[in-house]
């Protein structure tokens, strides 16, 4: 589409000169001669640039410029004031009203055309960047919606597979011990996949379901051991669990604690080398729980210790770039810990490695109404 120029000028010879010059460039031109009705005419013309005379029969161009800048489709349209030569005060006032440029009367037509072309070019570049940004945002939204849909739809079949495996395991139909172990590994792998799916969906909504009850940390640790036994064995690692003999119980959500601990252990498994030991330990102080997962991996640099819990953030060391991951798990951990009234953190281990920690109060705050 050809550029459209909107002109507010009451001097007929000047208006005719501007029209002839713009039309010689192949531009569309709309001209009005007063403040009254100018804004409505500009909105109807939908111009790409506006030329404003300062002194008009019923007011000034400053008023039109200020009203254009108040909002709407024309708020960012470039405005050029036409001022009397040497009228510095009007030029400054025009810039204050939101104009981008000025041209002094009497003006050379070539100069006026050059200024209009320059601002049309700038506007064209800005419009192109805006369209590109909007297109990228739309593409990203479509992509994210597709991912959400796929992940959401995965939850039902994974749950069905898990129930089927559990029924097979409990029915006693598999009498061979070795086959029974394989079945248990498949059941644990399915549950782990479900944990990942739920982490993704909960993090996306910014809220996890919370069901408060007394939590036995020994049951959480036992489930972690069962879930990760195949991975620990395959990577030739060791998992050491250190719990108090008779740990007190806190009022919290055992499932969310399990999911947070699972993310910590999964992270440690990724970055541990053959033969190394991952430690899961629990301690209680002031009635609250502190759960630590300690590894001997590459650690997390100090500037990244807070960022590591941001969505999609990956540590910058070489092992992190090479390891698979979405950057969702630790973000979920921070969100879930916050819902339970606690916090997560990571610190260095003296001999090298990281300690990911979950700290929870003796009693979590009641869930907020949906």
What structural keywords apply?
single chain; 370 residues; alpha/beta; Rossmann fold; Heat Shock Protein 90; five-stranded parallel beta sheet; five-stranded mixed beta sheet; 10 helices; 14 strands; 49% helix
Helix/strand/pairing category: alpha/beta
**Largest sheet data:** 5 strands, parallel
Span between termini: 50 Å
The radius of gyration computed from the alpha-carbon positions, rounded to a whole number of angstroms, is 34 Å
Helix content: 40-55%
CATH structural fold name of the largest domain: Heat Shock Protein 90
Tell me the name of the CATH homologous superfamily of the largest domain.
Answer: Histidine kinase-like ATPase, C-terminal domain
Shape: elongated
| CATH architectural type of the largest domain | 2-Layer Sandwich
**SSE arrangement, N to C:** EHEHEEEHEHEHHEHEEHEEHHEE
Q: Order of strands across the biggest sheet?
A: 2-1-3-6-7
Quick one: CATH class of the largest domain? Answer: Alpha Beta
How would you explain this protein's 3D organization?
The model has no long low-confidence stretch (mean pLDDT 83). The chain folds into 3 domains: 104 residues, Rossmann fold; 61 residues; 155 residues, 2-Layer Sandwich (Heat Shock Protein 90). The strands form 4 sheets. A 5-stranded parallel beta sheet has the order 2-1-3-6-7, with helices on both faces. A 5-stranded mixed beta sheet has the order 9-11-12-14-13, covered by helices on one side. Strands 4-5 form a two-stranded antiparallel ribbon. The relative contact order is 0.07. Helix 5 runs antiparallel to helix 6, helix 7 packs parallel to helix 8 and helix 8 runs antiparallel to helix 10. Helix content is 49%, strand content 19%. The chain is built from 10 helices and 14 strands. The radius of gyration is 34 Å and the shape is elongated. It is of the alpha/beta class and 370 residues long. The two termini are 50 Å apart.
């Amino acid at each position: 589409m050809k550029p459209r120029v909107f002109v507010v000028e009451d001097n007929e010879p000047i208006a005719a000169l501007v029209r002839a010059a713009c039309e010689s460039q192949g531009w569309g031109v709309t001209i009005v001669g007063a403040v009254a009705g100018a804004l409505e005419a500009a909105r109807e013309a939908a111009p790409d640039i506006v030329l404003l005379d300062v002194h008009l029969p019923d007011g000034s161009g400053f008023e039109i410029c200020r009203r254009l800048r108040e909002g709407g489709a024309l708020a960012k349209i470039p405005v050029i004031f036409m001022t009397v030569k040497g009228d510095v005060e009007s030029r400054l006032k025009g810039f204050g009203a939101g104009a981008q440029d000025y041209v002094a009367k009497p003006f050379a037509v070539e100069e006026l055309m050059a200024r209009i072309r320059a601002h049309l070019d700038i506007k064209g570049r800005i419009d192109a960047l805006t369209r590109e940004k909007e297109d990228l945002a739309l593409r990203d939204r479509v992509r994210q919606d597709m991912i959400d849909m796929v992940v959401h739809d995965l939850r039902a079949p994974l749950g069905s597979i898990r129930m089927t495996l559990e029924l097979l395991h409990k029915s006693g139909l598999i009498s061979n011990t070795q086959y029974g172990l394989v079945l248990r590994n498949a059941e644990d792998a399915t549950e782990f996949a479900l944990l990942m799916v739920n982490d993704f969906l909960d993090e996306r909504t910014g809220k996890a379901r919370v069901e408060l009850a007394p939590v036995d940390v020994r049951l959480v640790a036992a489930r972690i051991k069962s879930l990760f036994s195949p991975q620990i064995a395959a990577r030739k690692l060791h998992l050491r669990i250190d719990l108090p003999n008779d740990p007190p119980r806190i009022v919290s959500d055992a499932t969310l604690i399990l999911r947070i601990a699972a993310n910590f252990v999964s992270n440690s498994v990724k970055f541990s080398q053959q033969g190394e030991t991952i430690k899961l330990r629990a301690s209680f102080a002031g009635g609250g729980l502190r759960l630590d997962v300690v590894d001997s991996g590459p650690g997390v640099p100090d500037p990244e210790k807070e960022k590591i819990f941001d969505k999609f953030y990956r540590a910058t060391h070489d092992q992190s770039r090479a390891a698979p991951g979405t950057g969702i798990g630790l973000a979920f951990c921070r969100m879930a810990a916050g819902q339970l009234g606690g916090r997560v953190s990571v610190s260095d281990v003296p001999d090298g490695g990281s300690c990911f920690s979950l700290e929870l109060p003796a009693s979590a705050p009641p869930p907020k109404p949906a």
